[in-house]
Amino acid sequence: MKLANxxxxxxxxDTKVASQTPAAAGSGKLRFFARGLVPYAYLSPTVILxxxxxxxxxxxxxxxxxxxxxxxxxNPVLVGLANYTKVLTDPDFLVALKNTFVFITVSTVAHxxxxxxxxxxxxxxxxxxxxKAVFRIIYILPWLFTVAVIAVIWRLLLxxxxxxxxxxxxxxxxxxxxxxxxxxxxxxWALTFVNIWAGxxxxxxxxxxxxxxxxxxxxxAASVDGAGAVRQFLNVTIPQLRPVLVSMAVLxxxxxxxxxxxxxxxxGGGPLNATEMLSTYTxxxxxxxxxxxxxxxSAVIVLLLSLVLAFFYVRLxxxx
Length: 320
Fold this sequence. Notes:
It comes from Kribbella sindirgiensis. The chain crosses the membrane at residues 40-66, 101-122, 134-157, 187-211, 292-314. This protein is mainly alpha-helical. It has two domains: 22-64, no CATH class; 82-319, MetI-like fold (Orthogonal Bundle). It is built from twelve helices and two strands. The protein has helices spanning 22-64, 82-88, 91-123, 129-144, 147-157, 163-170, 187-212, 216-224, 229-257, 261-266, 278-287, 292-319, and strands spanning 67-68, 77-78. It has a two-stranded antiparallel ribbon with strand order 1-2. A hairpin with an 8-residue loop joins strand 1 (67-68) and strand 2 (77-78). The longest helix is centred in the first third of the chain and has 43 residues, at 22-64.
């Protein structure tokens, strides 16, 4: 019988040393730290791009809004909230704010109503496949045109000698042609109509996708319970479409409030500020009056209003 090794300090011949040298421990921590930086390395190009194109310009505009004679003067003076006071008390800004409210409210409501109406028409089983395809092409045409093309088309159509006046005078609705975009009483409504015409196809396609995602079992269950077409629309279609409708409404409020190209190429904010919007007011302050500090203050106000709408949009998305 062999005696066991009774020396407590002797290690078994096949046992590995558990302890590590300080250099090995340091290299392990370095590898762990480098592995943690890999996700940030992938995100860094996007973060740099957003910082250069968004965060830095926004910060510069905000700083300009607290100074006077920016850009045109070498040493601008810090004036605090004076630019904001000047903008908020400017009658032209108040007119632009009112016109923007009317413009975005009417446009958003009309977009939703028209989009839902045409989407229901294209989703019905009463029309054949070929007929639906033809109507889809016709309805989506306004969305295919660029803003410049839309502005040129409608300026020609709404001209006193244009097609719209010709049709209205032919059917006896008018005695003589009206310059819709040059009359202060009709310019805002004509511009709003053009914006509605150009934007409703996007809502139609979005709502149509939502309609096609509603299960037919819900309509069958409602029909078994004795619900007619109207009750099915109110109790099945609208509740199922509510997330889509609310999201599209908030997005349209944001997009329409920032509309500039269509307004500038049709009326330029005129006549007599009848179609002046926050976007055109800000542009004129900067590049017509060269009041870049005032324009910056106006831009910050528009940004804050847009952030309020964006907050509600994000909150709705989280609730969904």
